[in-house]
Write the structure tokens for this entry.
Amino acid sequence: MARFGLLALVAWASSCGGRTLEIAREKSGPAAVVAPAPAPRAPPPVDATVLGPESLPALTAPTPWNPEADVDRAGILAEGAEGSGEIVLTFDDGPAAETTLEVLRILDAHKVKGAFFLTGRRLAGDGVVSEMNRGVARAIVAAGHTIGNHALDHLAVNRKDAAWNAFQIEESARLISEATAQPVHYFRPPYGKVGPAAQQLLAARRDELVMWTIDAQDTKETDPERLTRRLIAQIVFAGQGVVLLHDLRGSSVRALSLLLDWLERHPRDPATGTGYGVVDLPTYLAHAAARPWPYATRLQLYHAREKQHALERPRRPRRAPALAAAS
């Protein structure tokens, strides 16, 4: 099957079997109003929009900031540079033509970059869906976003069996690289679990172990507004962080749009040290390594933040003691 570019994928997906690219607005309560789907369209000419691996710019492997793939070090790096107000947007479990393409559209509209941690199995095979997913992976790279590895089958790489861990990590990296013609050296462990055998392999591969800090639990919650409120609350508490969303879910896509609207209303002001700015993953990690927090673990940092917020929280005035009854 011919390989279509981003525009061709959108048009083709909208006409395949009567399916549309409408994002399902998953909400609790009354159903949200969804605009009617456009009429099916034929794909544009392939020679005008073809996007194959050979058309993408070659990227070099980054030098890892955490060369030993240490979990505590990865956690502190995920907390960002001290007091930076920087936000990085990350997306797990994709790609999926319908929802990931909408994420790309939203990021482009807000002129920000994200990081996509791809599950290798979604790129394997000769079927229509796999071919579309490979096209989406190429579209991610072509748009200037970061790609990462999220294991072949989205299974935790914390087993003692080194060969099994290697298969999950390296086979997924191979499939992603074949689809995009790019090296893949960012790895996010499914469920945040990574064992010693996998750590050794990641260190040998010179992969950057990437964790997250802002998580609205969007695999369990389907209300976009509730998801957005959770994300905002965590961002305000931490002051910055790595946002985790899943680009397979329509509710998460909608929450992304709402979050970016909120972030644009609260831009970073270097003079006052308030507000937030969205940066790409490589920039975020470089700044985190250059200006780290003075804590060895994320738990220590969390307790320090709790104490700081307690000091800043306005105290309720103490109630005056009741006056003794006149005798």
Remarks:
- DSSP finds eleven helices and eight strands in the chain.
- The radius of gyration is 22 Å.
